[in-house]
Specification:
This protein is 49% helix and 13% strand. α1 packs across α4 and α8 packs antiparallel against α13. It has 610 residues and is an alpha+beta fold. About 1% of the residues have low confidence.
């Protein structure tokens, strides 16, 4: 029986790998989020999802078995090609072609795979992909250099082709419903059940045991989803847990409800496979479900760059409702009695995988430190979700470069904590680990995208204030932090302005409040506090918004220190990334190093308290 499972169990993670490259390549290589019209990027993506529909008329000329084999061979070729490429246009088109090939493989599988195998194998493939993703600390093999990642990819591809060869075609096919549900299940797994936030509050670093427990429980929940896809012990009410868990995840509420929802998704996939209708149209149903995946992902993430006229949080909830309706209809018609009894060894496998994943992601909280000098080195960097000029994930390179500058404070913009659109990576945790620093995250657009400050200096207070949208679809915030530097308090405002004309006065008011200082105990006056405003302000030194910030007591020290340009990174023509300082501070040196890890250049400033 398991020989029949492995083609899908290995093929789904390969497809997911390519999607994690394809989706961010859309906004870093084909277009540029915020500048390229979303509909243009959507049409490009839709073209590659439409190509596999050619398999429907092709199946009248060749057998579905040959379509399955051909799609598998092209999928492996694209995956191996991605491991060899160094980014750029080859990455974009190899990932695009690989997604099309993966859908062709699934189309052929839908027309050849035995019905009893399908629900479990599809859910096991999704679970295997997410477990491997977490075990690799969310930096997939495609982004890793060296012989070991190559060896692992070659072995996986070889096992996949071998499993396709061993899986015999069957005339007893699964119903179309279970194949249609795969696309929505792929979306929900990537958006809600495989990110960083099952249990861990994402505002700052946490102790090693708590983080490891979070990862372990996520793995156990995904394994439970596979078990319930196998046994289908839940009835139609499993969908209610699924919808509730997705809604809570969208609201930023994590924990047990989300874990239960992950298991409920497996139960719904199992229910969808109980139908007795012959699978004559299951190949088309698979492609239709993937079209749902594309449309829902486009609507959800396009809302951050364009005003669609409605909020985006109902999109994954609606997808969960769709899965629930399909599962409920099947349960009502055919019942939800267990079709198999789960082997007891599944418990041991789940716990073992959970422990393994928890141990591989174990990290201790860096120790805080006090500096005796009245100086600090500050780095401000818009990292574009960690993707460099060639579209490669450069989180480790960012950390390695920043470490050479020996910073006391690192301010990051466009930090992603697990968006499926960007490949599901926790940028902040990865960079913080490379720097050996603690971090504080401030959500700006949704609860997984925003700005962050990294430092091991003593932190007195941290707040985040949402800024007005002023007609701009992408949210923004101003993160205020008070540090102790040489025994004195220094205030820092970290922000990424999206609508500078309206948001600059709001930030200026925050700077004034922070500079006013605090009332010492027993004193009737406030001690002024030196303040730094830094980040991607989308404002040049000559713009009127800069006058608003200067009126708040800030000055631009970089003008006298070479006035380095920061955007775009490959051919900078303007400076929109700033480190502005208030009274009580002076800049000793500053530069904008020409590093290729984002579409912006970082600003590095060494400051002294006067």
């Amino acid at each position: 029986m398991w020989k029949k499972h492995w083609a899908l169990v290995l093929g789904v993670p390969l497809l997911f790998d390519l999607l994690r490259v394809f989706l961010p390549s859309l906004i870093t290589l084909y277009g540029r989020a915020g500048d390229t019209p979303p509909e243009r990027m959507g049409l490009f993506a839709a073209a590659w999802f439409a190509i596999p529909f050619a398999a429907i008329p092709l199946s009248r000329l060749v057998t579905p078995r040959w379509i399955q084999i051909g799609g598998a061979a092209l999928l492996v070729a694209a995956r191996l090609g991605l491991q060899a490429t160094g980014g750029g246009p080859p990455q974009l088109y190899l990932a695009s072609a690989g997604v099309s090939a993966g859908l062709v493989f699934l189309y052929g599988s839908a027309r050849t795979t035995e019905r009893d195998v399908v629900p479990t194998a599809l859910m096991a493939g999704l679970a295997a992909s997410m477990i491997l993703h977490m075990t690799l600390d969310q930096v997939d093999l495609v982004w890793r250099d060296g012989p070991l990642p190559w060896l692992a990819v070659v072995m996986i591809c070889a096992l996949f082709l071998w499993s396709v060869r061993l899986s015999p075609p069957s005339g007893d096919l699964a119903p179309a419903a279970v194949w249609f549900v795969f696309g929505p299940a792929l979306l929900l797994t990537g958006m809600c059940f495989g990110g960083t936030g099952f249990l861990v509050d994402q505002t700052e670093s946490h102790s090693a045991p708590f983080t490891a427990l979070s990862v372990a429980l996520r793995v156990v929940a995904l394994c439970a989803a596979v078990v319930y896809a196998w046994t289908t012990r839940w009835g139609w009410w499993a969908g209610l847990f699924l919808v509730l868990g997705v809604a809570l995840a969208e609201g930023g509420v994590t924990g047990v409800p989300t874990l239960v929802a992950a298991a409920a998704l497996g139960a719904c996939v199992g229910l969808a496979g109980l139908g007795t209708t012959p699978g004559r149209r299951n190949g088309a149903a698979l492609l239709g479900g993937m079209a749902v995946f594309l449309v829902a992902a486009f609507l959800y993430y396009a809302a951050y760059d364009a005003d669609l006229g409605f909020p985006n949080w109902p999109v994954p909830v609606a997808v969960a409702v769709l899965v629930t309706v399909i599962a409920a209809r099947t349960a009502r018609r055919h019942g939800a009695e267990p079709v198999r009894r789960a082997p007891k060894k599944w418990i041991h496998v789940s716990v073992s995988l959970g422990l393994l994943a928890g141990l591989t992601t174990w990290q201790t909280l860096p120790a805080g430190r006090e500096t005796g000098k009245a100086e600090l080195t500050l780095v401000a960097y818009n990292i574009r979700m960690g993707f460099g000029l060639r579209g490669t994930l450069d989180l480790d390179r960012i950390a390695a470069w920043a470490r050479t500058r020996h910073p006391d404070v690192v301010l990051l913009s466009e930090v992603d904590r697990g968006w499926l659109l960007n490949g599901g990576h926790d940028d902040l945790a990865r960079i913080a680990r490379g720097l050996g620093m603690r971090y504080r995250f401030a959500p700006a657009a949704g609860h997984l995208w925003g700005d962050a400050v990294l430092t091991n200096l003593p932190v007195r207070e941290v707040t985040s204030v949402p800024l007005g949208r002023h007609g701009h679809p992408t949210g923004a915030q101003a993160q205020s932090i008070v540090l102790s530097v040489g025994g004195r308090q220094v205030g820092i405002v970290n922000t990424h302005l999206q609508a500078p004309p309206g948001q600059a006065p709001e930030v200026a008011a925050i700077v004034r409040r922070l500079a006013a200082g605090a009332l010492p105990r027993g004193m009737g006056f406030a001690e002024p506090r030196p303040v730094i405003l830094a980040g991607d302000l989308n404002t040049t030194p000559s713009d009127p918004e800069m006058r608003v910030l200067e009126a708040a007591g800030l000055s631009d020290p970089l003008i006298a220190l070479g006035d380095p340009l920061t955007s775009p990174a490959d051919r900078p023509v303007k400076r929109i990334d700033h480190v502005l300082i208030g009274r009580g501070l002076e800049a000793i040196e500053a530069d904008a190093p020409r590093v290729p890890f984002s579409d912006h250049l970082p600003v590095v400033v060494r400051l002294r308290l006067t």
